[in-house]
Amino acid sequence: MSAARRRPGWARLGILVAALALLATACGxxxxxxxxxxxxxxxSIKDLIVPIFIIAGIVFVLVQGAVIALWWKFRVDEPEDPAxxxxxxxxxxxxxxxxxxxxxxxxAWTIIPTVLLAVISVFTLITLFDLDGxxxxxxxxxxxxxxxxxxxEFQYHLDGNTDTPPDFVTANEMVIPVDQQVPLLITSRDVxxxxxxxxxxxxxxxxxxxxxEWVVEASEIGDFAGxxxxxxxxxxxxxxxxxxxxxxxxxxxxxxxxxxxxxLLDEADEGFEGQQVFLANCASCHIITGVTSHxxxxxxxxxxxxxxxxxxxxxKIVDPAILTAGVAPNLTHLMSRxxxxxxxxxxYDDDGNVNRAELEEWVFNAPEQKPNNPENRQGMTSFVGxxxxxxxxxxxxYLETLE
Length: 403
Ligand code: HEC
Ligand SMILES: [Cu+2]
Known about the structure:
Blueprint: H1 9-26, H2 40-73, H3 103-132, E1 142-148, E2 151-157, E3 168-171, E4 173-177, E5 182-188, E6 193-196, E7 203-206, E8 212-216, E9 222-227, E10 240-246, H4 248-258, H5 272-281, E11 339-340, E12 345-346, H6 356-364, H7 366-369, H8 389-400
Parallel strand pairs: 1-5, 4-10
Antiparallel strand pairs: 1-2, 2-3, 5-8, 6-7, 9-10, 11-12
Helix pairs in contact: 2-3, 5-8
């Protein structure tokens, strides 16, 4: 028998405590902290949790206290001498005095929890209805959120009309103006995901074929981290996102940039080679508005087809017969984001320089950077053996121009 298997109980407990302590330090800056709300919805959730937790804590102490007290009071000693018949001592084969039922007690411990739960449920329902309510006007900004293995897409409807094509589409980072409630329409293109920005609101499932209403609102400026919270396959743990709340003026400026198409480069332009590598290898999945809407999956020019002419609801942006694009992050303004690939990688280092080597590794061999299954239309393909070093360099140069 190995030494490890004979480790005594206290040593195992020690290891467990050490592991838990390590885990706790790993969550040092608590990016996913429900208890640190940054908006009214998250605040109302906290206002519900705290009193319920206190009530639950009191009940826990009372019940556990009673269990321990009763266990102590009615404990039974075995007599040292079997002939000893003191009350409260029993031999091994003897039953203690049998007690059955106490009507008053039973009524009490039925009524008290019922009343407690009834009170809690009233406040829970009030909070739930409150969280569901949309205060925004019909023509205020709305965002359709589409979950996908393993990243998030955000389709911006600046005029609030989610029945028409979005003004622009971005991925993983949802920029919103501070102090404004932003209604969301949450859906999925493949399996069930769940959208959760703990400092702004609770969770909402993203279910294929359904669109659920939800809202976010931030009352302070900042980047609020989130995580897909419905197990959705291989890279579920790497499916993160951010909501970045900015000043309204900054939001306006950002949106004005995002609606711009990328320029379609011709031979004389710098970056042309990279664009061509992109069109030949990447445009079957990725959209760059103004560039990829001009080619089909075989690279044939479709200059007359506007990407949005074939808009058919949030789930199917582009008719797959024309383009398979729309199943991957829209890259039109890639460099305006801070993170990529389910917000798992940082696009920039602390000095604001592009993490170029990492980005190249991603483009060259994504499945090695993040578990996926591109054969099954889940995630990004590998370009090992497809792109030469020069082509890789060119295409990443080109990505860097997508501001
Ligand atoms: C088979 C479809 C497919 C092809 C082809 C493809 N990609 Fe991707 N790409 C994806 C998917 C899906 C993701 C999202 C993966 C994730 O987040 O896990 C992605 C993510 C990315 C990202 C990160 C974007 C973001 O904002 O998160 C970049 C950059 C990128 N791809 C560049 C490229 C380049 C350059 C090429 C061509 C050399 C290419 N891709 C070819 C499907 C594809
Ligand atoms: Cu998911």
